[in-house]
Amino acid sequence: MLVAADGSGGAEAVSEGAAPAVRGRKRIYRSVTTAAEAGGHAVRLDNRVARTPAGQGLVLPTAALAEAVAAEWQDQGETVQPETMPLTQLAATAIDRIEAERTRVIEALVAYGASDLVCYRSERPADLAARQEAQWEPLLKWAATALGARLDVTRDVFPLPQPAAATEALRGAVAALGTFELAALSCIVQISASLVIGLALVKGRLDAEAAFNAAMLDEKYQAERWGEDAWASARAAGLRTELVAAARFLALARPT
Questions:
Q1: Are 167 and 113 in contact, with CB atoms under 8 Å apart?
Q2: Cα of 158 vs its chain's centroid, Å
Q3: Scanning 73, 124, 166, 178, which has its CA 20 to 30 A from the CA of 49?
Q4: Are 66 and 60 in contact (CB under 8 A)?
Q5: Rounded-to-integer distance, Cα 239 and Cα 252, Å
């Protein structure tokens, strides 16, 4: 999330060597461009490098990602609305937090694998159990084959300790990712409650739509059985938008 210096929640971007380009939510920059910089491609506001809330240069690994982030800034009206800038928020997260807290981020992600959504199955109703088996079991087989992480499955409500070797395999897969990949993965895993689903998307086993469907399997079943709930539907739509944005961020952050 982008937070203003005063804590108001507005986006803050600082032009190099100048006063903040955006204070609160008011837009006072005119032009948005991109340019090659040492270490990547910078987003520039009024021809000066924009900065993250922590004051670091908004320098991105690919021209494609820089252009997409710049487009978010350009599309703002008289006020800057951070909630309409998912790529910018992920970029700021990657720059400000992921690299500085890399070990903690990796361990937090591995913790999801220790209680992964796809490892917890229902016994009844039978049709729900069948759906979980059909959608989630192939992902566990993929994790075992592609990542070397053989995770156990339970139909109990209590936490299931996973084999140490599986946990280490997941840790290795996460630790091998770059800063911007970790930012996207963190977002996907928080939405899906599943490191397996997150890694499957990152590794190309799933696309964004398939990952969302796998993550929301139980919720979709309940909606079909008991009817749509307006709040739940709105929440699901918001999560889908976030997941799709994270998948796009991931694709743009990788060299073509």
A1: yes
A2: 27
A3: 178
A4: yes
A5: 20
pLDDT tens-digit profile of 67-95? 999 999 999 999 999 899 999 999 999 99
H or E segment and range at residue 23? strand 22-23
Give residue-wise pLDDT tens across range 155-207. 988 888 999 999 999 999 999 999 999 999 999 999 999 999 999 999 999 99
C-alpha to C-alpha distance for 171 and 115, rounded to whole angstroms: 14
Tell me whether residue 143 is exposed, middle or buried, using C-beta atoms within 10 angstroms of its C-beta: 0 to 12, 13 to 18, 19 or more.
Answer: buried
Alpha carbon separation from 125 to 29, 152, 220, 221 (Å, rounded): 57, 21, 14, 10
Angle between helices 86-93 and 179-192 (to 10 degrees): 120
Instruction: Count Cβ atoms below 10 Å from residue 246 Cβ, excluding itself.
Output: 27
Average the pLDDT over 220-236 and give the result. 89
CA atoms within 13 A on the CB side of 251: 11
- Distance between CA atoms of residues 72 and 68, nearest Å: 7
Q: No. of H helices and E strands in the chain?
A: 10, 6
129 by DSSP, 3-state: which? Answer: helix
The beta strands (E) that lie in 25-152 are given as: 26-27, 32-37, 40-45, 48-49, 59-60
Q: According to the model, what pLDDT value does residue 26 have?
A: 87
In the DSSP assignment, the letter for residue 97 is I
If one counts every other C-beta atom within 10 angstroms of the C-beta of residue 229, the result is 13
**Nearest Cα to 90, choosing from 217, 170, 200, 2?**
2
Give the separation between CA 179 and CA 174, rounded to whole angstroms: 11
Q: Enumerate the β-bridge partners of residue 42.
A: 35, 59
* DSSP per position, 141-153: HHIIIII------
Query: In which band, very low, low, confident or very high, does the pLDDT at 47 lie, cut at 50, 70 and 90?
Result: confident
